[in-house]
Automatic annotation (TrEMBL):
Pfam families: HMA. PROSITE patterns: HMA_2. Residues 23-86 form the HMA domain. InterPro entries: HMA_dom, HMA_dom_sf. It is found in: Membrane. CDD domains: HMA (cd00371). It is a peripheral membrane protein. Gene3D superfamilies: 3.30.70.100. This is HMA domain-containing protein. It comes from the Eukaryota. Keywords: Metal-binding.
């Protein structure tokens, strides 16, 4: 290490650097009944420090905040309105191996979405099921191993 390296090392020790916040997208499921509820939620969430844009879809019960925000702070601000709020629990149904299993299928979910889960039996295919899915390939219809 030369003189320059030593100076840089010492300056790093004594000078405090600010952490750069990461650009995030936070999606919430919010109980909203009308456009007025959606407008109120949009006003509250747009006041969160670091929020660049806020989208509210009251028909889908979804609020999305984009910017340099933390999920906990956005959730706390949304709960301050007195509405029932939770993190967005849905994922596209093709991301889950068994989308119609109990605990995953939600008839109140928006179309083509199911609840996210971490259960290994529901979220992923077991080896036997995986063999069956590879047997019939949509990408290569002549690759059917039964025929």
């Amino acid at each position: 290490m030369g003189v320059i390296g030593t100076v840089e090392y010492l300056s790093d020790l004594f000078v405090k650097k600010k952490k750069k916040k990461q650009l995030n997208t936070v999606s919430l499921k919010v109980r909203m009944d009308c456009e007025g509820c959606g407008l109120k939620m949009k006003n509250v969430l747009s006041r969160v420090k670091g929020a660049k844009s806020v989208e509210v879809d009251w028909k889908q019960q979804k609020a999305t905040v984009y910017g340099y925000v933390e999920a906990k702070k956005v959730l706390a601000a949304a709960k301050a309105t007195g509405k029932k709020v939770e993190m967005w629990p849905y994922v596209p149904y093709n991301m889950i191996a068994h989308p119609y299993a109990s605990g995953v299928y939600d008839k109140k979910a928006p179309s083509n979405l199911v609840r996210d889960t971490n259960e290994p039996g529901v979220a992923t295919l077991n080896p036997v099921e995986e063999q069956y899915t590879l047997m019939f390939s949509d990408d290569n219809p002549t690759a059917c191993s039964i025929m």
